[in-house]
Automatic annotation (TrEMBL):
GO terms for biological process: diaminopimelate biosynthetic process; homoserine biosynthetic process; lysine biosynthetic process via diaminopimelate; threonine biosynthetic process. Pathway: Amino-acid biosynthesis; L-lysine biosynthesis via DAP pathway; (S)-tetrahydrodipicolinate from L-aspartate: step 1/4; Amino-acid biosynthesis; L-threonine biosynthesis; L-threonine from L-aspartate: step 1/5; Amino-acid biosynthesis; L-methionine biosynthesis via de novo pathway; L-homoserine from L-aspartate: step 1/3. CDD domains: AAK_AKii-LysC-BS, ACT_AK-LysC-DapG-like_2, ACT_AKii-LysC-BS-like_1. Keywords: Amino-acid biosynthesis, ATP-binding, Diaminopimelate biosynthesis, Kinase, Lysine biosynthesis, Nucleotide-binding, Transferase. It is an enzyme of class 2 (transferase). This is Aspartokinase. It comes from the Bacteria. Its EC number is 2.7.2.4. It catalyses: L-aspartate + ATP = 4-phospho-L-aspartate + ADP. Substrate binds at residues 47, 74. One of its GO terms (cellular component) is cytosol. It comes from Streptomyces phaeoluteigriseus.
Length: 425
């Protein structure tokens, strides 16, 4: 038996009973002959509560101190889990991200992993211990300050450790039974996917699916680490995410034409109005955004008006970055030469994902017909070989997701999707 990395989300360790349940599952893997590394998130909504507390003290908390505060959440859960495992008669040691060798860049609140040097973890495993690692955190290579990896960073911690330790699999335990064809909180008849490719999972993750973080899947694909998404509340098999399909019984699980429907209401839209339609203008706009360390999603440029030679450029970005983007553009208004800015944070994105759509020409038509029949107006469109995304009004998103899900035959015969815990916050 080889080494297994298991990651447990906040809903799985939300209280003492949850921590004891997780401890039993980890011990069971150890009894089955595996070396086990468990990566844990903060308990329940602890991270959100700490952010709320920080904002009550300071409207704009300093990044370094906010990271110092937020990492306390995982330290609590890792220590309690180690205690629970020891209570079951097995040895366990807990490690912070820096102790585990998670080396990052110096960007606070959304650091990226540069390297993982898990010497202490390997030594602990060789001594027969179960290693418990605080997810979501690391240490800056340059400043030696504590850093956090941003929302969902514990998934990335787990996959990075799995790659560094050459693990057989990285098991991601959450509050649903796997990856579903849509968010089960929105679509009750969503179906569990048995296997999905890294490519389709990357598109779902980047389009708003919250089961796995985009960076986590990207890391797993780069190092070819199979991910098994499972529920910590049941013993059911979950969803395998890998480069190759899996076998179940005597049949091969094939790639579906359509993998699923994702949605995202955490974005905002910025429109730069009256941009001179000449070479270099778009480059100046997006260099300004890049220098502000802001990631963009969809970008659309209108056809310029013949009478004025001006055009509009719209793009979407996280709501949390909206004010920063507007400030950066306003500061460079003279250099860009635009007329005005428009900001809209009442939008939502719906995405249809599937590798089969590139060889099925009717998919696009069916997608837009489903939205039309649901009375959903489209504001922006973006496509790739395996994804179609549209921006609509935020209020239209739930109905749009259900309509598209049904139109492509993704509905289960029963209400299969169960959400065992978590608030979805």
């Amino acid at each position: 038996m080889g080494l297994v990395v298991q990651k447990y989300g906040g809903s799985s360790v939300a209280d003492a009973e949850g921590i004891k349940r997780v401890a039993k599952r980890i011990v069971e893997a150890k009894k089955n002959g595996h070396q086990v590394v468990a990566v844990v998130s903060a308990m329940g909504d602890t991270t959100d509560e700490l952010i709320d507390l920080a904002e009550q003290v300071s409207p704009i908390p300093a990044g370094r101190e906010l990271d110092m505060l937020l990492t306390a959440g995982e330290r609590i859960s890792m220590a309690l889990l180690a205690m629970a495992i020891k209570n079951l008669g097995h040895s366990a040691q807990s490690f912070t991200g820096s102790q585990a060798g998670v080396i990052t860049d110096s960007v606070h609140n959304k650091a990226r992993i540069i390297d993982v040097t898990p010497g202490r973890i390997r030594d602990s495993l060789d001594e027969g211990n179960i290693a418990i690692v605080a997810g979501f955190q690391g240490v800056s290579q340059d400043t030696k300050d504590i850093t956090t990896l941003g929302r969902g960073g514990s998934d990335t911690t787990a996959v990075a450790l799995a790659a560094a330790l050459d693990a057989e699999v990285c098991e991601i335990y959450t509050d649903v039974d796997g990856v579903f064809t849509a968010d089960p909180r929105v679509v009750k008849k969503a179906r569990k996917i048995d296997w999905i490719s890294f490519e389709d999972m990357l598109e779902l993750a980047s389009s708003g699916s919250k089961v796995l973080l985009h960076r986590c899947v990207e890391y797993a694909r780069r190092y070819n680490i199979p991910i098994h998404v499972r529920s910590s509340f049941s013993g059911l098999p979950g969803t395998w995410v890998s480069s190759e399909s899996i076998e179940q019984g005597d049949k091969q699980v094939e790639q579906a034409i359509i993998s699923g429907v994702a949605h995202d209401t955490s974005e905002a839209k910025v429109t730069v109005v009256g941009v001179p339609d000449k070479p270099g203008e778009a480059a100046t706009i997006f260099r300004t955004i890049a220098d502000a360390q802001i990631n963009l999603d969809m970008i659309v440029q209108n056809v310029s008006a013949a009478s004025t030679g001006l055009t509009d450029i719209s793009f979407t970005l996280p709501k949390s970055e909206g004010r920063k983007a507007l400030d950066a553009l306003e500061k460079n208004k003279a250099g860009i030469g635009f007329d005005s800015l428009r900001y809209d944070d009442q939008i939502g994105k719906i995405s249809l994902v599937g590798a089969g759509m590139k060889t099925n020409p009717g998919v696009t038509a069916d997608f837009f017909k489903a939205l039309s029949d649901a009375g959903v107006n489209i504001e922006l469109i973006s496509t790739s070989e395996i994804r179609i995304s549209v921006v609509t009004r935020a209020d239209d998103v739930p109905e749009a997701v259900r309509a598209v899900h049904t139109a492509f035959g993704l509905d289960s015969d029963s209400d299969e999707a169960v959400v065992y815990g978590g608030t979805g916050r």
